[in-house]
Amino acid sequence: MVISKETRAIIIALHNNGLTGKSIAARKIAPQSTIYRIKNFKERGSIVAKKAPGRPRKTSKRQDHLLKVFQLRDRATSSAELAQEWQQAGVSASARTVRRRLLEQGLVSRRAAKKPLLSRKNIRDRLIFCKMYREWTAEDWGKVIFSDESPFRLFGTKQLVRRRRGEHYHQSCLMPTVKHPETIHVWGCFSVKGVGFLTVLPKNTAMNKESDKMQALIVQEWTAISQDLVQKLIESMPGRTAEVLKKKGQHCKY
Fold it and tell me: Would the pLDDT of 124 be above 60?
């Protein structure tokens, strides 16, 4: 707890008059733990608090803000590259210091979120669609049947494993990949009444026992989707169109 010089002087004067820490704390001048820690007068004859030990901060708030501007200009810039850019601005600091300063300002290094690439045409079409249906309510969207086609690959799915140091390439910790993975294409639809039939399309490249298992799992997961979940998705449509318009057709949280 930080207290003023005047309060420290009063506490020291009461100490010198023979009062105990408990007696001084009863006067509610400061917390009892703070009163017991005030030893500046006895040790140094001064009521000024000691300077905190340790190395002084290397950068100013203005310099830290400049670093933040550099990072926000290009989110993919590495800490080493930022250190060089910062140095050109007159601040000599390591990549480690860069990471600490960015962390203090709430900028944490994370893997970039994956979203489909949006061309200018995609952005324009998204805006046209959302402007056309911006006034639609959840009740209006409840009259629509939503449908789409999706591919499922037998290889290349993500998997988390627990491994010890040095086991990066251990056989039990690997996820095998192939250059041209076998793919299962399906088409499905849903409405406010729930999911419809899932159709496995004939253009599939996967033709073996593993693909049969995968098809069965896909159908199983599809039929397990509850009507409540579908209802929530449809009710979110007004919010989705508003968000796309707010982002001017660019990526959003949906």
Answer: yes
Contact 90, 96 (CB under 8 A): no
The domain segmentation of the chain, as residue ranges, is: 5-44, 61-105, 120-247
Given phi > 0 = left and psi -120 to 50 = alpha, else beta, which region is 210? alpha
Residue 217 has pLDDT above 60, yes or no: yes
pLDDT in tens, 10-52: 777 777 777 777 777 777 777 766 766 665 555 555 555 556 6
Mean pLDDT of 55-73: 90
Q: DSSP assignment, residue 114?
A: P
The DSSP output letter for 130 is H
Q: What sign has the CA pseudo-torsion 25, 30, 33, 35?
A: negative
Question: Regarding predicted confidence, which is higher, 211 or 237?
Answer: 237
| Residue 93 Rama label (left phi>0; alpha psi -120 to 50; beta) | beta
pLDDT at 205: 61
Phi-psi region of 137 (alpha: psi -120 to 50; beta: other; left: phi over 0): beta
The answer on pLDDT for 112 being more than 90 is no
99, amino acid identity: R
Cα–Cα nearest to 210, from 154, 133, 148: 154
pTM, 2 dp: 0.55
Query: Is 120-247 a CATH 3.40.50.970 domain?
Result: no
